[in-house]
Amino acid sequence: MTKEEMQILSEMLDQKLEEKLEEKLEKKLEEKLAPIRADISELKQDVAELKQDVSVLKLDVAELKQDVSVLKLDVAELKQNVSVLNQDVAELKQDVSVLNQDVAELKQDVSVLKLDVAELKQNVSVLNQDVAELKQDVSVLKLDVTNLKKTASSLTSDMEILKEKITQVQLEIEHTLTPTIKLLAENYVPAATRYETDAAGLYTLKAETNMMKITIERHSKIIQRLVKKLGYSSDIAFLLNPI
Fold this sequence. Notes:
Blueprint: H1 3-186, H2 192-230
């Protein structure tokens, strides 16, 4: 064989070896790459799922951002409300302090009122005692007035009797003594003895008349006092003038 043939054979053998080596390498590579490809496909699926999850997360993050912005607004409003509430609490504390002062003053006023009520109760008890005493005095006065009325009626009857007696004395003086005196004046000398006797009788009558006048004046004063006390009208005024 020639060198050229040998070269051709060697080249052919090299090609075949290369082909076989390539086939073996491809088989080995396929064997080795198959699980890697499977892992890559799984990784692709996982990446696709991750992309979906990331898109979902982006949506969630966007929603969360919106929620956070809303929460920030709510927090700002809450801060404003809390400041307003703090002001209201401060005002309420002031009002409560004022109310406490008012309650303290009311308690003092109530204590003073209790003392006043206690004093009033004592005064009422004293007044009740005074009223009871006044009632007793009034009952005694009623008895006294009743007795005075009886005495006044008795004095009125006595005055009537005295008036009748005085009238009788006046009539006796007019009808008996006056004519006798005239007769004595006309017949003085012949009737001197009789005149002296009649004069003694006249003196006795005058003395009795003076005694009756004194008695009537005394009774008139008594009746005047009774009239003032009892409040009688002037319908018995004729009894008060001495005769």
